[in-house]
Design a protein that fits this description.
With 177 residues, the protein is mainly α. It has 2 domains: 69 residues, Orthogonal Bundle (Arc Repressor Mutant, subunit A), CATH 1.10.10.10; 88 residues, no CATH class. 62% of the residues lie in helices and 3% in strands. Strands 1-2 form a two-stranded antiparallel sheet. Strand 1 and strand 2 form a beta hairpin.
Amino acid sequence: MNKNSREAELSHSMVHYLLTIHKLREERGYARVTDIARDLNLTKGSVSTALNNLKKKGLVKEEADTKFLLLTEDGHHEVHRILSSRTLLFYFLKDFVGVSEEIAEHDSCMMEHLMSDETSHKFFEFMKKLACTCDDLVKDGKSLPDGFDFNTTLNLCDFKTASEFVKGQKGDKYLEE
């Protein structure tokens, strides 16, 4: 299965399972079915069924001796891809479009898994060009065009490429809870 067909097959709920495994492993060092069920407020049975689907897609596996859940290399790639898409969408909606943080958080969560790698990379390049150009103008003491009051707290200027940005995604820390 190629990456693009797998992306199309990931549902919103599957993405939440992947992100929850990632979060639990980052916070605790392990992820179990019971932990995922508790975190997502679901039954262990429904979590087991969903995890079997993710295992079939090659995104999740179990440690043989402990039954702890692990993300495969492809699973890690998907998590970083999804987190970078969510981050870009969140800041674009909040800072570029001007919607509230609550709406930006909700909408970015709903759209994160639908964005292709190509769109995500182009989106990064567009946002970086706009953000860094505006930052440079302000640093040089120049004003932005009338009616253009743009300011973002996402520092894209620190990343050379979209791939570097994707690899740098660690979690949902940019969202205030």
